[in-house]
Design brief:
5-stranded antiparallel sheet, alpha/beta, disordered C terminus
Length: 268
């Protein structure tokens, strides 16, 4: 089976090679992969992984053999899904609770960009509780998770401010739903549109320090807190694609929650 493998002798430590076809567990469907996407975390992992590893998180394709336990989509279904590793291959064995069926108007190429970036944005926004009428700042808004976060925050009824590095990206984020756009190498220009009830931060460095000044109240939100308490607290959320996790952070603490699979869901 053709797959992208870690190869220390190749540029970027990756090359196209041959590996064994995956053996699907009873709760896994065998998927013929049509499209994949790249995330920072999996690319970074390939730089330090042992030779022969087949990386890859996001995938889209067609079910070649359904799960033996009867769960999930059936043969021929168009799907999108994700794995801890192994998506960059012709075939992939994917747990059915990490798959969602695609409507015909969504291409494989479009769908492959959804899982890690889209779920990171979704679960980061969930940390802020109800967003209707609240002010949300999204940094790195022209990137994968940031672009999804702008769209989802706008659909949730928030006033959305997008921070992008270059002026030419303003049209992209406004089309995604941003009410206001700040541009620049750091976060200084975003202060004019604050303060913010929720900040989704994926740039880091000096940007993170500056942004803490503009939260209505610097605090961390834990997934274990009652929803009512989360709604009353202003939150600064750092969204990270590293290992596909969403983290919430304050000046004094960091708590991480793993991305949950889209059980029984459909993409619409």
């Amino acid at each position: 089976m053709r797959a992208i493998l870690v190869d220390k002798a190749a540029p970027a430590n990756l090359s196209l090679g041959e590996t064994e076809e995956p053996s699907a567990a009873p709760s896994e469907a065998l998927v013929r992969v049509s499209a994949i996407s790249l995330n920072r975390g999996e690319v970074n992992r390939a730089q330090i992984a042992e030779p022969g590893l087949n990386p890859g998180w996001d995938l889209a394709g067609t079910v070649e053999r359904p799960a033996a336990d009867g769960t999930g989509p059936q043969t021929g279904a168009r799907i999108v899904g994700f794995l801890p590793s192994g998506a960059w291959a012709a075939l992939a064995a994917v747990p059915t609770n990490s798959l969602a069926e695609l409507p015909e108007n969504v291409s494989f190429e479009q769908a492959a960009t959804l899982p890690i970036a889209g779920l990171t944005a979704l679960y980061a926004l969930e940390k802020g509780g109800v967003l209707l009428g609240r002010s949300v700042l999204v940094t790195g808004a022209s990137g994968g998770a940031g672009h999804f976060a702008v769209q989802l925050a706008r659909l949730s009824g928030a006033r959305v401010v997008a921070l992008v590095r270059r002026k030419e990206h303003e049209g992209l984020v406004r089309e995604a739903g941003a009410h206001e756009v700040a541009t620049g190498e750091d976060a200084a220009n975003a202060g004019a549109f604050g303060p913010y009830d929720l900040i989704l931060e994926s740039v880091g460095g000096r940007c993170w320090v500056v942004l803490l000044r503009w939260s209505r109240r610097t605090a961390s939100a834990s997934a274990s807190e009652p929803r009512g308490r989360q709604r009353r607290r202003s939150t600064c959320v750092a969204s990270s694609l590293r290992e596909g996790r969403v983290s919430t952070a304050s000046l004094s603490s960091t708590k991480c929650s793993p991305i949950r699979p889209p059980t029984g869901s459909r993409v619409s």
